[in-house]
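Archive entry. Fields below.
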Amino acid sequence: MTTSVGRRWATLPLITPAIALQSLFFFLPLIMILIVSFTYRDTFFFSPVYTLDNYVKMFRIYRIDFQNTFFLAGMAGLIDIIIGYPFAYILLRKVTRFADVFRAILIIPLFGELYIAYGLLYLILPGGPVSRLLDTLGISPLDVLYSAPMAIFGMSLYTLPFVVYNIGISLQGIDRSYEEAARCLGASRLKTFLRVTLPLSLPGIITGWLTSFGWNLGTLAIPVLLGGPILGTRVLSNQIWTTSLVTSDFGMGAAIGVMVVAITMVVFYVVVKFSRGVLI
Amino acid sequence: MTRVEAIDLVKRYGSFVAVDKVTLRAREGELVTILGPSGCGKSTTLRMLAGLIQPDGGRIFFDERDVTSLPPDKRNIGFVFQRVALFPHMNVYKNVAFGLEMRKMPKRVIQERVKEALRLVHMEGYEDRMPSQLSGGQAQRVEIARVLATDPEVLLFDEPLSNIDAKLKDELKYEIRRIQRETRKTLIYVTHDQAEAFAISDRVYVMNNGRIEQEGTPLEIYTNPRTPFIASFIGTTNFIETSLKDYDEKGGIATLEASGLEIRVRHPSILLDRRRRYFISIRPEDIKVINPDDQKSYLNSFKGTVEDAIFIGTTVRLNINVNGLLLKVDTYGAERFNFLDSKGKEVVIGFDSCTILNM
Amino acid sequence: MGRGMYERLSSILSYLYLILVCTAILLPLSITLYRAIVVYNPDGSITISFQSYTMISEAFWDKVLVNVSISLLTVAIDVAIAVPAAYALVKYELKAKRLIFTYLNGVWYVPGISYGLALVLSYYFVYKFLLGFWGFVVAYSTGFMLLALLTAIVAFRNLDPVYEEAARCLGAGRLKTFFKVTLPLVGPGITAGVVLILVLSLNEFITALLLSGPTRVKTAPLQVFSDIRHAGIQPFVAAEATVLQLVSLAIVILYLKFFGTKYLRGAIMI
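PREDICTED_STRUCTURE:
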């Protein structure tokens, strides 16, 4: 029961600052980027030349970048599901001692993709700890390092906490009596898992994958540092940065930026529809 | 000492009417209970008296003062909650002192008052304990001390004993009565426990479905329940649907008929109408298994067969079939053991008191 | 093989799995640390030395200082703005509660790269006075407000209203009740948000990358990024990369030591 001690008008001064902050520094900039995406190069700042060219050209010029980004982010999400599902399941169902330690370690990837990229970069680079091992196996470290699998591995480490969280929330929502009922009806552990637990936690799997995908669309340091000069630089985040701030083609940078926002919005809309958790 | 008066209180939640034109009064220094099943609106009524909920209609007076739209902190009340509401981040002393600090009393006075309040509830020496270190009963005592320390005009207790185990509950309810007598404060007490209400109250309001169904002393309500709900909610009873056969206004005796039996009722408390059917209530403890020779000394007496005898403890409950009518009869004392294997036997039962209910 | 044996085996395997995954999570940090402190001698032996930390340039420490100031200001602003908003969202009947909540959380769903560019455009065009240090503070405050909001909402929701009602009945007004009862009781929950914002804003990279050009402010993660690209994997770069990570780790461990995981669960933890 909520207290009705308070009166309605009292909410206004409490909530207005938050709404104002988001309106001024999130929604207004978002509208600006949308407008700029319809202007030619940097004309917006003196005499705007409106055009649809950016969007028309974008898919031709940056088709590779879209492909790369989707591929890397999608694969990272998949890896996260495969690693994260057992992790969440064990953390919630099997483990009692040290559970909080494992939970705490899951915070570390939130420190940022830059550190993940750097750590993995040094791991494989010539002179690094693994390079000797690779040498004896006759593999060139650079082949391992500047490759899609390495970037995918880095991205999946980055978003693993979100996937574990999403799957965990949906596992917590499953009434244990369903599983107990299945066991009593003669289903083995494996059958119970496959026929009851897994289908019931499917929403968590879907939201987990989408969340990972959405977050990795915007990663920059991991693909650039680990993906190498060919794959790594041809991702959307890098193009947004370089076209707008390095080559001053704000129009095109904004258009790609808007495209990424649109895709992410759709992705997270689906996530919110499916998920019951508060945070993605 | 303050008089409390609530007139036509209404609270709606959407289309659901939680409290429907409730009027109640508590005289100076009186202990009044609102008794009813869960969800009947009794807590909502109490919360409106406290100002925790704004009523959608009606007025509330403390003496001559209209407090209807005052917030709780301006009403000078003492509210004791069902759940332990001691602030978990303050020790017992700080908790009891809280209300006094809010009233900006000097430190010395606060010290004295806290001591006095804790003494009153027999909790001296617990000043430094944290709420988590107290048992449920101790916490509720401190809660009462916290409320008393501020010297409120009106005490409002919302099922304060419902989360306390049975033994302690019995002890604490008499404590509450003692404290109320000692402090001579007006107390409005909400509970769903009839025994608790009857043990401590001067007067009881019985509430059901958002309305007050009956008001009176515990004795009046028990012996003269006015509606089927009250008859069944308060104690156990036999309900019998009857039709009015005859009413001898001079002798003051009404005769009602059910399953071919004639049941006589002395001085019915409601106006009777020959065309209507009436429910009557007979308490199991009012029916006696009697010697067939004594039939004349009872207003009603019938022959019946014992269908079942159940040992409950202080009573043995018999289910007796009279002409197809199944009556619950309670037997007491040493003689009750004689009935333990009376199943199938023929007996004679007699009773004087029974009540015609208002539908 | 008995049931007990099966349980034992599955328990051991469970722990092994968790440890394996956690090792992978810890891999980047530990490798970076390894690079920073392990020195290969010419004779092939290995020594551990913290000399690399002394080789970090003055400029980097300056940037750490800038970073810390930005983070602390961000925390202060976010708590001041989000806690009242969370209180209103939990305690009052609002018509468009879900809509407001979604509106306040929107920024979380926009990739940092796009958000950074959008901010840069608005700074160039509308908020010219924010081209500098305050541009970062405002950007981070807006971007991370959600974390303070969420943890505060969880804290307020877990707070039994009975304490506030009791305070009101004992004569405390609205404000007194909030400061003497509500805030002390939800405080630990709100600190969860503080810790998250502190850690994330200390390490924020992408938004900073976009803002650094126009604002001419460089934060420590950006220095690390440019050093990686220009100086490669020198020990001093590795040392730089560990500084803020270790600070963040210390903050998190300190927090967990005091409060445990309970206030973070449901917000970012299961």
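CURATOR_NOTE: DSSP finds 15 helices and no strands in chain A.
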